[in-house]
Amino acid sequence: MDNWLVALQAATVALVLALIYRPLGDYIALIYTSRRNLRIERGFYRLIGVDPRSEQTWQSYLRSALAISFVGVLLLYGLQRLQAVLPYALGFPAIPEGLSFNTAISFVTNANWQSYSPDVTMGYSVQLLGLAVQNFVSAAVGLCVAIALVRAFAAVRAGTIGNFWVDLTRGILRLLLPLSIVAAIVLIAAGMIQNVSGFTTITTLSGATQSLPGGPVASQEAMRSRR
């Protein structure tokens, strides 16, 4: 029976991929080849001082990817170490140095390896401003690297492989964010929690009491499922 269930799951995944690979693939190709920038994107480019029409060599593209990853590690580490003074910390103390560094590296490198229980370790500020943001940024950086590699093979003698900041922004705003919003709505409709209400004490059928955590679960799981 287990073998049949595994086979059915594999067949379902294969069917879904067969149905969406072409429209989704075409949409992703359009995202990274379009010459048109959305208004919100143009505002962001002006804010960070980037010319979206400029092209980068692979060396410059790589430096940009490493720079945002380095900043991501520092910010996520800092949020964890300052957790005790952040709003919605749920009374949790600052996360220890070693665990903070391990978690920061893990999420920035798109590994998401966790050696702790989030329900009793991290408040909502760290989850939303730190982990959730890195779920988007690290996934978008991975897409940038893949797209840059494709461009490098397609135009060996061009000397440039696009603009990292344009690719990063489009990957988040045009692909990852819309997919995650749809997935989060589906998960919430199915009963998954999405709140900042902290812990709720309930009485079980046996008469005992139990504290159940709330939290922005649907939004987190939606992004994790996109990865």
UniProtKB/TrEMBL annotation:
InterPro entries: KdpA. The chain crosses the membrane at residues 61-79, 128-150, 171-193. Coiled coil: none annotated. Keywords: Cell membrane, Ion transport, Membrane, Potassium, Potassium transport, Transmembrane, Transmembrane helix, Transport. The keyword Transmembrane applies. It holds the Pfam family KdpA. One of its GO terms (molecular function) is P-type potassium transmembrane transporter activity. One of its GO terms (cellular component) is plasma membrane. PANTHER family: POTASSIUM-TRANSPORTING ATPASE A CHAIN (PTHR30607), POTASSIUM-TRANSPORTING ATPASE POTASSIUM-BINDING SUBUNIT (PTHR30607:SF2). This is K+-transporting ATPase ATPase A chain.
